[in-house]
Design a protein that fits this description.
306 residues, D-Maltodextrin-Binding Protein, domain 2, five-stranded mixed β-sheet, three-stranded antiparallel β-sheet, 10 helices, globular
Length: 306
C-alpha cells in the first residue's frame, strides 16, 4: 500500500475513532487497517494512536500528522479535479449540510432539481442540528442560520428569520396572551434541545437587551416535536419563523411578543474561500442563492398577533 493510501486509512481511523468503523468506511477488512497503522508507526518511528481496550485517540504526533494528511489529501483531490476539468464543468461528489428542519423543508426539495440540471454531479446532504466544521468534515457548501465568524469562509445572505414565541390560539384564549416576556415564567413551556439558537431566550425592549431563563415543563430533542405540541394547545414554544410559517398561516399557531423580538437572524450560504472554486460548488451556490433568495417565507415577515 502506497503512502497516499496509508494517509487515507489513517485519516479514516482518526475521524471514525476506531479500526472497525474505518474499515467499513473504506470497504476493507479490520485486520488490514490494523496492519496499515502498525506499519506506518513503525516506519515513522512514533506512536500516532493511543489505544486501550475501550477507546482510541490521537497522540500529539498523531494530531499533527492528521492535519498534514488532510492538507495533502485535499491538495491531491484538487489536482485530480482540476485535471478532470471540474473547475469548468460541474462534476464529482458534492457534500452539503444544513440543520435538520431547514434542510427537510427548504434544501431537500431543491437537491433533485440541481442534480437533474447537472447529471455529472453526485450529492450527499448532511442534515444535523449542530455547527459543522466545513474543512474537517469535507463539506463543500453549508446553509447556516445565524452569524458566521470564520474568516476563511465566504458567505452569501439569502434571507433572514425571526426568533418567535408562539402557541395555539386556544392556549392563549384559556390562559391569556402575554404582554411582556417575564409573563412566560408561568406558562407551559415546551422547549427543543436540538437547536443552540433557541435555548437562550433573548428579547429586546426599546433597544435594551432582555434575557430570561425559563424552566420548561417539557423538553424534546426535535424542533418539530415542540412545534407540534404547541400546535395542539398544550403550551408555548420558541421557534424560528420559517419553522412555523405554515402553522401560523393556517391559524394553528399564533405569534406573541413581537415587539420584544431580537433582530432577525441571517440565512447564509457558506463555502470555503479559494482562488479556484470548483464548478460543482459555484453552480450549487448560484442555484441555492437564486431559489432561496426568492422564497417569501424566508423574508422574516410572517404575520402574528402582538
Amino acid at each position: 500500500m502506497d503512502r497516499f493510501q496509508e494517509m487515507q486509512v489513517f485519516t479514516a481511523v482518526a475521524e471514525e475513532e476506531g479500526f472497525a468503523a474505518a474499515a467499513r468506511r473504506l470497504n476493507i477488512s479490520p485486520p488490514s487497517v490494523t496492519r496499515v497503522i502498525a506499519a506506518m508507526e513503525e516506519r515513522i518511528g512514533t506512536q500516532l494512536l493511543a489505544r486501550t481496550t475501550r477507546s482510541l485517540h490521537l497522540t500529539e504526533a498523531g494530531q499533527r500528522y492528521l492535519e498534514d494528511c488532510r492538507r495533502i489529501l485535499g491538495e491531491v483531490g484538487e489536482a485530480e479535479e482540476a485535471a478532470a476539468g471540474s473547475y469548468s464543468l460541474p462534476c464529482g461528489h458534492l457534500t452539503v449540510t444544513a440543520s435538520v428542519l431547514f434542510g427537510e423543508l427548504y434544501i431537500a426539495p431543491l437537491l433533485a432539481q440541481y442534480l437533474d440540471r447537472y447529471p455529472s454531479v453526485h450529492l450527499s446532504a448532511l442534515l444535523v442540528d449542530r455547527v459543522t466544521n466545513i474543512a474537517d468534515e469535507g463539506i463543500d457548501v453549508a446553509i447556516r442560520i445565524g452569524h458566521v465568524q470564520e474568516a476563511t469562509l465566504h458567505t452569501i445572505k439569502v434571507g433572514e428569520v425571526r426568533q418567535v414565541i408562539c402557541g395555539a390560539p386556544s392556549y392563549f384564549d384559556r390562559y391569556g396572551r402575554p404582554g411582556h416576556p417575564g409573563e412566560l415564567s408561568t406558562a407551559n413551556i415546551v422547549m427543543s434541545s436540538a437547536s443552540h439558537l433557541l435555548s437562550d431566550w433573548q428579547f429586546v425592549n426599546e433597544g435594551n437587551d432582555l434575557s430570561f431563563r425559563f424552566e420548561p415543563r417539557l423538553v424534546v430533542t426535535a424542533n418539530q416535536a415542540a412545534i407540534n405540541i404547541a400546535s395542539q394547545g398544550w403550551g408555548v414554544t420558541r421557534a424560528l419563523s420559517y419553522q412555523v410559517a405554515s402553522q401560523v398561516a393556517a391559524g394553528a399557531l399564533e405569534i406573541v411578543l413581537q415587539d420584544y423580538e431580537p433582530p432577525a437572524l441571517p440565512i447564509q450560504v457558506v463555502y470555503q474561500k479559494s482562488n479556484r472554486v470548483p464548478a460543482k460548488v459555484r453552480t450549487f451556490v448560484e442555484f441555492l442563492t437564486e431559489r432561496l433568495g426568492s422564497d417569501t417565507a424566508l423574508k422574516a415577515g410572517i404575520e402574528g398577533t402582538t
